[in-house]
Amino acid sequence: RRLLPASLLCLVGVSIAARAGAFPPVAHLDRAVLGALGQVANWEALSRHSSYAALLTGGATPIDHFWSLAVEEQFYWVWPLCAAIVIRSRRSVRRQQAIVVGAAAVFVAMGPVVAWQWGGDVAYLATPSRLGEILTGAALAMVVGMRPVARLESSRGLADAIGWAALAAIVLAGVSLPSDHGPAYAGLLGV
After folding, report:
1. What whole-number distance in Å separates Cα of residue 124 and Cα of residue 122?
2. Is the C or the N end of the chain the one with fewer CB within 10 Å?
3. Alpha-carbon gap, residue 161 to 146, rounded angstroms
4. Where does residue 20 rank: exposed (0-12), middle (13-18), buried (19+ CB within 10 A)?
């Protein structure tokens, strides 16, 4: 409900601006718009052999950033169904946590395999190689979120410290990692 109206407005605006000549001509803009509308922009980009580095070197469309939204939306379509199956399985909470942690581990391991088998651009853009990152967050939320509130309050300082350290790591990675190779192209971001 939050992303769709803004996404539609962006796509309509870009389409109108492109027809008015606001951007250099891009042969595949119509396909990119359809991919973004269908929430498969990452797969559309892969079908035309695009890469994230192409965003910085020219030839990109004004909506190539929709690839990451597509990965998230694909997760949002599948995750509630998977979570409902795990919850309805009537297994113990620990068993449910183990299932989600195990799924996250499988997808984290899949990232490097995808990079090795199909290359860095596929590892960067394909859904299976990026799900490990999102599932790691879901697993962490499930493990931490199911702890008793008193235990969560007692570890508040530790949680704050971990949060600040994570923010520092993200900023450091953003300014130091290259845009055309590195851990993301090796499928290692979930690690």
Report:
1. 5
2. N
3. 20
4. exposed
Q: Calculate helix-pair angle for 29-37, 66-88, nearest 10 degrees.
A: 20
What pLDDT sits at residue 86? 87
**What's the mean per-residue pLDDT of the chain?**
85
Stretch 30-44: mean pLDDT: 93
Helix/strand number for the chain, H first, E second: 10, 0
C-alpha distances in Å from residue 15, one per residue of 28, 40, 58: 12, 18, 19
Dihedrals φ, ψ of 65, to 5°? -70, -10
Structure tokens at 182: 């590195």
Report phi then psi at 111, rounded to 5: -55, -55
Interatomic CA distance for residues 13 and 173, integer angstroms = 32
User: Which DSSP symbol is given to 91?
Assistant: -
Between 45-54, 113-122, 135-144, 165-174, the lowest mean confidence (pLDDT) is in 45-54
